Amino acid sequence: MSKLKLVLGVVAIAFVTLTVVSCKDAKTESSTNSETSTEEDHSKMNHDNSDGHHDSEKKEMAMNGDGNAQAVLNDYFSLKDALVGDDNDKAKEMGGTLVKSLKSFDASKYSESEKSELNDIIEDATEHAEHISESDIKHQREHFKVLSKDVTDMVAITGTGMKLYEQFCPMYDNNKGGAWLSMNEEIRNPYFGDKMLKCGKVQREIN
Amino acid sequence: MKFLKIIAWLALVALVVIQFFPIILNESDYVPQSDFMVENQVPATIKNRLQVSCYDCHSNNTDYPWYSKIQPAAWFLEDHIQEGKDELNFNEWATYSDRRKNSKLRSIISQIEEDKMPLDSYTLIHKDAILSDEDKRMIIDYMTALKDSLE
Asked: For bias kind Basic and acidic residues, which ranges apply (chain A) (predicted)?
């Protein structure tokens, strides 16, 4: 009888072991897969651009010759709109899209000091966008506040062909306030959404 | 019965075989100049709490438990430590820009506030790593002050 117990015990340990090991392998595999699919997505996106699918984007690119920063800005605005609409799932998705455009940002044409500043901004922004792609809406908004600063600092270096408005809501974050960028002068608050849609003011105009 | 026996032997062999795939240990005697404690004037009590509760996964030197010598536990730990260091490595604090420090401090504060760190799976075995309410308040206050000084 004790022999049976021993055998069963070993089987149990082995089972756990094998499960853990196989899980580990599966994890590595799936992460490789997702990397490949990211690359595929990128090539698809580029393809779309060259087709002139995104007309407005193309126009902006022609205006300031900076498709990279423009792609980041466009995804940032989509994310902002999702937060304005209190849409957690959409914001997750847009956070993920923003991670991709941030990762494909190429700072090589800028001067040395601008390059290091930009890389720093991009690295920081990527981390916040990653968090946004996997958190609840309260956390998304917290990260969005820092992300907005990153994107604003990025625009200060890269410039943009668009007219932008830096807007500010003094009530967010326990009255410490929170700023964001918008393409429209009219206030649509991404920190409170429907609860206080029009809280805020234009703090600065860019271009 | 015979069938069970075969499975058991196979499993035992598998368990023995995986012991021959060791991990590279995250161990270093050297505390670099870029360490969080070197750059900042950290009060002794907070220093101690960070060392015990955070540094195992967020620095280049892990104080390994006995079961880390046994597979598959070691792989599990290796994954966790790698992930922890990617997010935040206290040993490399000075190499982060002010912007990055700000974001890291923000995360440290919210992770502790929300009891997400230290991980439950970690404190399950490391009882000494559990932060008391007093510890939490102390660390959060310190990190908040540090963050404010950067802004």
From this structure: 39-61
Longest dimension (CA), chain A: 84
CB distance A102 to A72 below 8 Å: yes
Predicted confidence (pLDDT) per residue in B103-151, tens digit:
999 999 989 998 899 988 888 888 889 999 999 999 999 999 998 888 7
A204 SS3 class = strand
The number of helix segments (H) and strand segments (E) in chain B equals 8, 0
H or E element, residue B6: helix B2-18
End-to-end Cα spacing for chain A:
84
Q: How far apart are CA B13 and CA A16, in angstroms?
A: 14
Q: For residue A111, what are the domain limits? A: 65-206
DSSP of A124-180: HHHHHHHHHTTS-HHHHHHHHHHHHHHHHHHHHHH--SS-EEEEEETTHHHHT-EEE
Give ipTM to 2 decimals: 0.71
pLDDT value, residue A9: 55
Q: Is the pTM of this model over 0.95?
A: no
Is A130 touching B (CB cutoff 8 A)? no
A123 chain-B contacts, CB cut-off 8 A: 100
Distance of CA B121 to the CA centre of its chain: 11
Q: Which of A37, A58, A40 is nearest to A49 (CA)?
A: A58
Q: Which two tokens stand for residue A99?
A: 């991670």
Q: Is position A178 within any domain?
A: yes
State how many domains chain A has.
1
Does residue A89 lie in a domain region?
Answer: yes
Rounded to 5°, the CA angle A152-A157-A159 comes to 80
Compute CA distances A78 → A31, A67, A90, A183, whole Å.
Answer: 26, 16, 9, 11
Let me know if residue A25 belongs to a domain. no
B-chain residues within 8 Å CB-CB of A21? Answer: 18, 72, 75
Interface test with B, best of A8, A15, A16, A21 (most B CBs within 10 A): A21
Cα–chain center distance at B47: 15
Pairing between strand A201-206 and A178-182? unpaired
Asked if the structure places residue A38 within a domain, the reply is no
